[in-house]
Amino acid sequence: MKIRNRRARQTHLSKKWWAIPLFAALFAAPADAAGTISNALSAREAGRGGTNLGFGDNGVILHDNAAGMLGLVGDGCCDSSYLDIGGVALFTDLSYSDDDNPTTDAADNPTGLGYFMMARRWNEDIVLGFGAFAPAGFASDYDLQGPATLPGNHTYKSFGALVRILPGISVRMTERWTVGATLGTAVSHVEIEGPYYLNSGPLRGTPTILDIQATGAALSWSCGSQYALTDRTTIGVNYQSKNEFEADGKAAVDITPLGRSYYDVEFGLTWAQSVGIGIMHQVDSCQRIGLDFEWEDWSSAYDNANLVFTNPTNPVFESVAGPKIDEVFPLQWKNALIVSAGYERDLDDHRTVRLGYRYQDNPIPAATTSTYLQTTLQHHFSAGYGFKHSGWEIDTAYQFAFAPDVHTGTSTYPGGDFSNATVSTQTHMVFVSAMRRF
What we know:
This is Outer membrane protein transport protein (OMPP1/FadL/TodX). It holds the Pfam family Toluene_X. It is a multi-pass membrane protein. InterPro entries: OMPP1/FadL/TodX. By secondary structure, the protein is mainly beta. Helices cover about 10% and strands about 60% of the residues. The strands form two sheets. It has a 21-stranded mixed sheet that branches. A hairpin with a 3-residue loop joins strand 12 and strand 13. The longest helix has 7 residues, at about 20-25. Residues about 1-35 have low confidence and may be disordered.
């Protein structure tokens, strides 16, 4: 049996034309992540290990902790507006091996992601902001030998994207305390292509070739706070809501004796909620350190992914499998704790250097590790450099991340695919950001 998308991506995305510029400009697979959440977007926060919850010096603070936006603009008549744009080049180094495949590297497809943010002071106690951010995703692309029941060479390919479009506000409650919030829209796009064994329903255990695309939108919101414990030390906390999607797509099912039937497909997927607490300490006039702790709720978000196939066009398929196929793809992820530490030093009024390290739990159990969600990174090392030029603040950073090899043992998935496998993951990321106050 084969499941393939109808008339490829163009048919589906023609109904979601508004999503195309978002994904083209903002996202292409940030696999450098805890689970699927990228640990940094701006070069400034990336250079110091992703620490940002207690800071207020870059536009991604709207996404990470909107309370920090008051630090972006001046208190007087000047510098009341702010603009921040940035991009990231991602280079992955992924490999996979099992009983049917010697060590095989994934396709080397450098990709990019980005963001933009703007803010303006409403009055001396309120700053308004707006931005678009690509904080999460996954991707891989392999050519591998399939298991015995699906012999031959097959493509194993996945792509997942999350973009959040966020208006936000930051309010000064007292001289030391600020609060902030965002309320906007999240857009998600998912593609999966490759061998797959159905896990549910009357066709359970049937080997298939899956090729599907689905896109959807959901509500996204956050709330946060910052408090100046002293003139040198600020603590920040933030809650990010989960994003629950029912993404819509098209698929076709091919079974050799029965022919082909087209289906509408609904893909249920949740991006995890998170809570974080961080601290920024000004060591002296030119040195700062940061420490962030974050918790991500993957156990409820990625317990299962749900696919629903409806409206078959071939009545033979409906007589065999019924009018609807409810498919459950088990993930069984665990919650993740993330610890980030960063340091930055001003060399003079125009130049700054940064160093950082980030540790994050791998939320993926060995038994559900596969090429489709190869986001197992744990250790991240970073360095950054910033300078000022013609009124702009330019920042660059480099980050290297890796994970210990994962040995799957007996896979949860039927058919023998991904059992007794070894998965290796590492990435390189290069960040560039530019910000200006005016």
